[in-house]
Q: What sequence folds into this?
């Protein structure tokens, strides 16, 4: 299917993305416990999943599922549950987790498998890069240093950014084409499909 799109739609989507991105970076700079890069991943996941309310819910559920699976893998490895070296234990548990992530796609709410892997990868990005994060003490605490606390919230804020960008793009596009009803716009400027707007479902 070829989507026809005029320049005003793309420009509206680009301007909306620019405004939302700039506001997000500024807001996250005041929240050091949260991660703007993870929010951008959540935003992109929402958009490529369809940019509808249903897509946002399914993307969010899969993102969080991926975070939980990665956290379980990390806890198993950090606790030394398996009588293996850390790299081998990580490989085995990550393999099992990946199997379960794909298998879980049988459930509609977890059917967006790429989103689950985005959550999984985001969690390990944080655990691998932040000193002290890949320890039982950090992963069991009820504070912002625990990836299971901070990562889901960051990703879910990203879903909200995706919804906000779609709405703002529709407002900007409507101001240039008053005759057409305002419809949420995806990042590439294409409208959200008929019957699947952010207000539907």
A:
């Amino acid at each position: 299917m070829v989507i026809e799109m005029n320049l005003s739609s793309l420009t509206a989507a680009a301007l909306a993305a620019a405004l939302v991105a700039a506001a997000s970076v500024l807001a996250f700079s005041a929240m050091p416990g949260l991660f703007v890069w993870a929010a951008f991943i959540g935003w992109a996941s929402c958009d490529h999943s369809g940019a509808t309310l249903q897509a946002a819910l399914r993307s969010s559920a899969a993102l969080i599922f991926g975070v939980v699976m990665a956290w379980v893998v990390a806890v198993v490895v950090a606790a030394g549950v398996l009588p293996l070296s850390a790299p081998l234990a990580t490989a085995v548990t990550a393999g099992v987790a990946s199997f379960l992530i794909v298998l879980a796609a049988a459930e509609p709410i977890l059917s967006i498998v790429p989103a689950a892997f985005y959550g999984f990868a985001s969690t390990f990005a944080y655990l691998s890069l932040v000193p002290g994060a890949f320890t039982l003490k950090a992963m069991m605490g009820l504070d912002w240093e625990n990836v299971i606390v901070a990562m889901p919230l960051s990703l879910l804020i990203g879903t909200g950014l995706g919804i906000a960008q779609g709405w703002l793009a529709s407002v900007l596009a409507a101001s240039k084409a008053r005759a057409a009803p305002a419809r949420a716009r995806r990042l590439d400027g294409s409208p959200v499909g008929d019957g699947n707007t952010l207000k539907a479902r």
In short: The chain is about 65% helix and 0% strand. Residues 1-7, 194-201 have pLDDT under 50 and may be disordered.
